[in-house]
Amino acid sequence: MIKPPVLRAKAHQFFSSWWRITLEDIRAPLFDTAARLQFFLLVALLIFVLPSEGYSEWREGLKNTMRSLHAFLYAFPAFAVFAGVVAIFKVAKEQKRLGQWASNRFVFHQKRHLMTAVVTSEDNGKLLHFKVTGLPKNASVDLVVEIEKGFDDRNIRVQFVGHKDFPIMWDEYERHNMLGFVPEDETLYVTTLKPTPSNASTIKVFLMSWYA
Questions:
Q1: Residue 104: inside a domain
Q2: Domain coverage including residue 9
Q3: In terms of domains, do 115 and 69 share one?
Q4: Using a CB cutoff of 8 Å and minimum separation of 24, what contacts does 83-87 make?
Q5: Are 10 and 91 members of one domain?
Q6: Rg, Å, the chain Cα set
């Protein structure tokens, strides 16, 4: 039996994706190059071309434009409803592409990139923040930090910090993974330690999975 927190998490995941995809589809015509060109052609027609051909031509063109606008007001609600229906199928396809549920855990097929930072010894002890967005309230996350291979990739230590007011003291352990709750502001931190002098290093933070 599926527990209520998992049902709420799945519902949040579905509806947040559905709303995003629906808005993207509704806004798509506004960002279409051909549609923008047609709009400017219409403006040029009404302002420059038709007035030069006489008042009657301009008036007829204006009437046609108003008819098109009137038709748009009728068509847009139907278009929005259709976009919402199509989004249901797009959400299902997107979620299968992104990952799968295993009990109360959603596991990504490919790790989700959250942050990239290039650090030097001047960044020692600084809190480098990153956002974990789009998850239900009280979700917990499985994070990993990777050090990009390079000239100085072994000359760096990295660890996660769950809260900026409670930093973790450095010790002999490497903390390149973290399992923790997402705070209200959806912000988590990493901190680095490098010897001086040393070359810059690149670190990347990824989300592997999250728990309802």
A1: no
A2: 4-99
A3: no
A4: 83/22, 83/25, 83/26, 84/18, 84/22, 86/25, 87/18, 87/21, 87/22, 87/25
A5: yes
A6: 26
Last residue of a domain, one of 72, 99, 126: 99
Q: How many helices (H) and strands (E) does the chain have?
A: 4, 8
- Between the alpha carbon of residue 3 and those of residues 13, 58, 103, 124, the distances in Å are 16, 65, 9, 43
pTM over 0.85: no
> How many domains would you assign to the chain?
2
What are the Cα distances from residue 207, in Å, to 84, 94, 133, 145? Answer: 29, 17, 11, 9
Question: Both tokens of residue 82?
Answer: 């259709």
Q: Find the farthest-apart pair of alpha carbons in the chain and give their distance in angstroms, rounded.
A: 86
Could you report the per-residue pLDDT of 19-40, keeping only the tens digit for each?
999 999 999 887 888 888 887 8
Looking at 68, 99, 130, the residue that finishes a domain is: 99
> Which range in 32-41, 127-136, 192-201 is most confidently predicted, on average pLDDT?
127-136
